[in-house]
C-alpha cells in the first residue's frame, strides 16, 4: 500500500514537473498584429543621384533603415519607363515621386507590352511642386493680361504639359496662340538661357529649377506671372480648358522671387503597385508619421510628407490610394465615406484604362501585330480602340457626380491646336 501511494505521488510530481518544464520552454503567443517582419531590403529607383529626389529619399530612408534594420538601396536609372516596369512587377517598392499620365495613357514611347496603363496606387505624398510662367523681371508682364500678341514663348518640344500650361496662360489672358511666336527648345536649361538672353519673353517651369537662380541674379532679374484663381475665376476656367490637371496655391520655396506668387500647385506622390503588401505600406506610413521630426527638416521635399497631404491626395488626385494607406488613415480617423467613394471611383476609371490596354494587346496578338512603342500599326490599333471606348481623361478633382472630359475630346482639340514644329 505504501509503495502504491509512493508511486502515485511520484507520477503526480513527474507530471507537474513536465508541465512546468513545458511552460518554461513555451513562448507566449505574440500580440495580434506583431508577427509581421520587415523585409530584408527595399529598392527605390531615381533618375539620377544628383537629383532632388535622391536627396529626399536619402533623408527619410536613412533613419528608417537604422530603426527597422531594413537595407535600403536607392538605385539610379534614367529611363522612367524602366522604373515604372520595375514598380509594376514588384522589383522595386515605389516609383517616386512622379507619375506621368503619358504612361497611364500608353502614349508615344510608353505604348509597349510591358509599359502603358497599370494598377498604380498612391501610398504617400512625396513633395509639393509649384509651376508657373516666368518672365524677365523688367518685362512688365505681371498677369496673363499683360501678355502681348507679339510675345515669344519658349516651349520644350519633348514634354506636353509645359506646352499645355503655356496655352492655358494664354487663354487666361485671352491671347490667341496663333498670334504669338512659339520658340522650340530642347531642355529646361536651354529654355532658361533663352529667357535670360531675351530670345523668348515667357517660359513655363517649376519654381525650383536650378537655372532660375542664374536668371534671378542677372541684371534683368526674374519675374512670375500671377495666376490668382480666387480673384479671377473666369480666367482660371479658361486656363483649365487647356490644363485640366491643376490646382492653385501660393508659392513657397524655390527661387526667392517666386515666394508668395499665386500659381499652380501639384502634390507629387509616391506610387506602388496595387499588389504591394498592404502591411508593408501600413508599417512604412506608420513609421513616417511617428518619426516625422527625425527627417522633416532634412530635405525641403520632406516637409510635405504628412497625413494631411495624404488626405489631400485622396481628395484631389486621379490615382487610387493604396489599401495600406487607407488602413492607416482609418486608424487615425481620417478616412471618410466620401473618400472611400472617390477612391472606388478612381479605381474604376483606372481599371477601364488597364483593361482596355490589355484588350488592345490581345487584338494585336490575334492580328499578328507586334506590340512595340515604335510600331505604327500597333499605335494605330491602340489609338482607334482607345478612342472608340470614350475613356475618361484622368484629372484632379474627379469623383462621383462630377462630369469629366474624356480623353478623345481633350487630345483631339490639343493635337489640332498644339504647335507644329
Helix content: 40-55%
Mean of residue pLDDT values: 88
- Determine the number of helices (DSSP H or I, runs of at least 4 residues): 15
What percentage of the residues does DSSP assign to strands (E)? 5-15%
The beta-strand count equals 9
State the distance separating the first and last CA atoms. Answer: 112 Å
For the largest beta-sheet, the strand count, sense and barrel status come to:
5 strands, antiparallel
Poorly predicted regions are: 1-33
Overall shape: it is globular
CATH topology (fold) name of the largest domain: D-Maltodextrin-Binding Protein, domain 2
Rg on CA atoms, Å: 27 Å
Taken in chain order, the helices and strands follow as: HEHEHHEEHEHEHEHEEHHHHHHH
CATH-defined architecture of the largest domain? 3-Layer(aba) Sandwich
Class of secondary structure makeup: alpha/beta
Amino acid at each position: 500500500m505504501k509503495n502504491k501511494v509512493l508511486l502515485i505521488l511520484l507520477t503526480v510530481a513527474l507530471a507537474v514537473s513536465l508541465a512546468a518544464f513545458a511552460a518554461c520552454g513555451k513562448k507566449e503567443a505574440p500580440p495580434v498584429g506583431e508577427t509581421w517582419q520587415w523585409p530584408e531590403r527595399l529598392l527605390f529607383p531615381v533618375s539620377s543621384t544628383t537629383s532632388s529626389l535622391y536627396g529626399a529619399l536619402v533623408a527619410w530612408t536613412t533613419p528608417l533603415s537604422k530603426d527597422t534594420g531594413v537595407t535600403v538601396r536607392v538605385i539610379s536609372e534614367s529611363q522612367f519607363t524602366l522604373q515604372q516596369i520595375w514598380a509594376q512587377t514588384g522589383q522595386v517598392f515605389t516609383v517616386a515621386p512622379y507619375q506621368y499620365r503619358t504612361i497611364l495613357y500608353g502614349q508615344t514611347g510608353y505604348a509597349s507590352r510591358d509599359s502603358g496603363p497599370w494598377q498604380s496606387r498612391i501610398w504617400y505624398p512625396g513633395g509639393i511642386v509649384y509651376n508657373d510662367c516666368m518672365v524677365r523681371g523688367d518685362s512688365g508682364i505681371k498677369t496673363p493680361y499683360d501678355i502681348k500678341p507679339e510675345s515669344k514663348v519658349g516651349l520644350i518640344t519633348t514634354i506636353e504639359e509645359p506646352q499645355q500650361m503655356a496655352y492655358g496662360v494664354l487663354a487666361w489672358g485671352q491671347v490667341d496662340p496663333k498670334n504669338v511666336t512659339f520658340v522650340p527648345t530642347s531642355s529646361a536649361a536651354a529654355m532658361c538661357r533663352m529667357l535670360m538672353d531675351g530670345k523668348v519673353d515667357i517660359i513655363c517651369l517649376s519654381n525650383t529649377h536650378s537655372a532660375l537662380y542664374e536668371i534671378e541674379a542677372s541684371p534683368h532679374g526674374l519675374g512670375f506671372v500671377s495666376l490668382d484663381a480666387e480673384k479671377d475665376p473666369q480666367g482660371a476656367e479658361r486656363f483649365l480648358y487647356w490644363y485640366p490637371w491643376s490646382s492653385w496655391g501660393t508659392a513657397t520655396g524655390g527661387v526667392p522671387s517666386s515666394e508668395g506668387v499665386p500659381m499652380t500647385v501639384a502634390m507629387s506622390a509616391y506610387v506602388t503597385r496595387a499588389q504591394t503588401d498592404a502591411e508593408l505600406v501600413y508599417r512604412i506610413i506608420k513609421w513616417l508619421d511617428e518619426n516625422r521630426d527625425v527627417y522633416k527638416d532634412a530635405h525641403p521635399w520632406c516637409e510635405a510628407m504628412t497625413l494631411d497631404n495624404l488626405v489631400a491626395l485622396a481628395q484631389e488626385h486621379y490615382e487610387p490610394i493604396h489599401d495600406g494607406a487607407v488602413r492607416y488613415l482609418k486608424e487615425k480617423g481620417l478616412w471618410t465615406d466620401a473618400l472611400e467613394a472617390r477612391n472606388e471611383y478612381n479605381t474604376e476609371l483606372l481599371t477601364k484604362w488597364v483593361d482596355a490596354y490589355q484588350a488592345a494587346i490581345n487584338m494585336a496578338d490575334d492580328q499578328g501585330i507586334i506590340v512595340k512603342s515604335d510600331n505604327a500599326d500597333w499605335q494605330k490599333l491602340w489609338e482607334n480602340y482607345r478612342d472608340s471606348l470614350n475613356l475618361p481623361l484622368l484629372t484632379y478633382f474627379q469623383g462621383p457626380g462630377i462630369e469629366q472630359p474624356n480623353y478623345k475630346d481633350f487630345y483631339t482639340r490639343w493635337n489640332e491646336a498644339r504647335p507644329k514644329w
